[in-house]
Design a protein that fits this description.
The chain is mostly helical. It contains 6 helices and no strands.
Length: 108
């Protein structure tokens, strides 16, 4: 058994790192000015995506034993929702800071 914080950390080290590499790598080869915020953006996209995936899994009829043990919404629903909202708000702020607000429509 793990805590919600540990699950979010796992999401950060797994899914978020892959998305960070894609976002930061794309920014590096583009003509845009590179900012460390692209790493933060990739992190927030990854964690938010994975938490949404965890929420989606709750609609499945049969969760695997592994999912029952690590799904943050089964472990501690209020803490998982707080983590999701924090990540989502950070994602919105970063999009605004990097002048990517046109992407906000994809979040809704």
């Amino acid at each position: 058994k793990v805590t919600t914080e540990e699950v979010v950390r796992i999401h950060e080290l797994k899914t978020a790192r892959l998305i960070q590499a894609a976002v930061a790598g794309s920014a590096l080869i583009s003509k845009n000015k590179f900012s460390k915020n692209y790493f933060r953006l990739g992190r927030e996209i990854g964690i938010t995506f994975q938490l949404l995936d965890d929420l989606n899994e709750l609609t499945e009829e049969n969760l695997s034993p592994h999912e029952k043990d690590i799904n943050p919404f089964l472990l501690n629903r209020p803490m998982a929702l707080k983590a999701f909202h924090r990540s989502y708000q950070s994602l919105e702020r970063l999009l605004e800071k990097e002048n990517l607000t046109h992407l906000n429509s994809m979040l809704r």
